[in-house]
Write a structure and sequence with these properties.
One of its GO terms (molecular function) is methyltransferase activity. InterPro entries: Methyltransf_11 (IPR013216), Methyltransf_Superfamily (IPR050508), SAM-dependent_MTases_sf (IPR029063). Its EC number is 2.1.1.-. The chain has helices at residues 3-6, 11-23, 28-36, 53-56, 75-88, 126-136, 154-164, 171-175, 178-188, 206-214, 217-220, 224-236, and strands at 44-47, 68-72, 95-98, 111-117, 137-148, 192-203, 245-256. The chain is of the alpha/beta class. A seven-stranded mixed β-sheet has the order 3-2-1-4-5-7-6, sandwiched between helices. Helix 2 (11-23) packs antiparallel against helix 10 (206-214) and helix 7 (154-164) crosses helix 12 (224-236). It is globular and about 55 Å long. Bound molecules: S-adenosylmethionine. S-adenosylmethionine binds next to helix 4 and strand 2.
Length: 257
């Protein structure tokens, strides 16, 4: 499953988000907004915006929405994001550009903040992407990147390893680790602040774990034998409300300026 195939619709993204929505005790998006400390009238580019959950999954509307530009390679998700943001601000439709992070159709120095949340692990040429962020970022502006920790959802990843032979550590973090994010940002910016997010999940329904693992490329491609093995492995865990499967979500937000 290529990146393009993965995001033709929001099916895979939703399977993963379901785990966070159902078992999360903290709100990652609120955490990001608190760390960003938005200023009035900021111009913000949200690169790899997905369906725009960052802007809608918050308890109170944000004042900076009318300075927002959305960018994504998935036309489907970009349209969802545009519709979501339009519904949040009266008489406003954000600029939405179907484009790749490595070749942004944006002017130099145009944004106070460039966001790239949980998206650089899909990108082959990550140094080039960060150079693009620097180019479109105004003097004194900032770039915020997020990615998972290598030990994110460690128990679920162990199951994926046992059944599908998937990587033992978080796939996103293997492809783009927090330390790599820091290294790339430090090449272009004077300071990089690192914010760690952690949340414990008590998962009471084995189906949610299966859906999560099957949303990734190896799980998605698994044949019926492997899928049965996964079901059996989950049965052995005897997961229930009384006996939840406990795992920890760990992500990092890095803000450079
Ligand atoms: C895991 S989602 C994250 C969405 C959103 N940023 C969030 O945190 O909720 C990754 C997003 O990156 C987009 N994407 C993948 N490769 C891209 C690229 N080269 N340029 C721009 N967007 C890309 C995908 O289409 C998808 O919407």
């Amino acid at each position: 499953m290529t990146v393009v195939e993965q995001y033709v619709t929001d099916k895979n993204l939703k399977s993963r988000a379901n785990l966070h929505a159902r078992y999360g005790t903290k709100n990652w998006f609120e955490f990001v907004h608190a760390a960003m400390e938005w200023q009035e009238n900021e111009h913000v580019a949200d690169i790899g915006c997905g369906p725009g959950w960052l802007w809608s999954e918050v308890s109170s509307p944000l004042s900076i929405l009318d300075g927002l530009t959305l960018v994504d390679t998935s036309q489907f998700l970009l349209q969802q994001a545009q519709t979501t943001v339009s519904a949040l601000v009266k008489d406003f439709e954000p600029q939405a550009l179907e484009a790749s992070v490595c070749d942004l159709p944006l002017n130099d120095d145009g944004f106070d903040t460039v966001l790239a949340l949980h998206m650089l692990y899909h990108v082959e040429d990550q140094p080039r992407a960060v150079m693009e962020f620097k180019r479109v970022c105004a003097e004194g502006g900032r770039v915020a990147i997020s990615t998972n920790s290598l030990d994110n959802l460690a128990r679920i990843n162990q199951l994926g390893f046992d059944v599908f032979g998937a990587q033992k550590q978080d796939l996103g973090a293997v492809l783009f680790s927090p330390s790599r994010a820091r290294e790339l940002l430090e090449e272009h910016f004077e300071s990089v602040a690192v914010h760690r997010f952690e949340d414990n999940y008590e998962i009471s329904d084995a189906k949610d774990i299966a859906a999560n693992l099957l949303s990734f490329p190896l799980g998605d491609a698994a044949d019926s034998v492997r899928r049965k093995e996964l079901a059996e492995a989950l049965e052995r865990e005897l997961i229930s409300v009384e006996r939840p499967f406990v795992d920890t979500k760990v992500s990092f937000l890095l803000i450079a300026n």
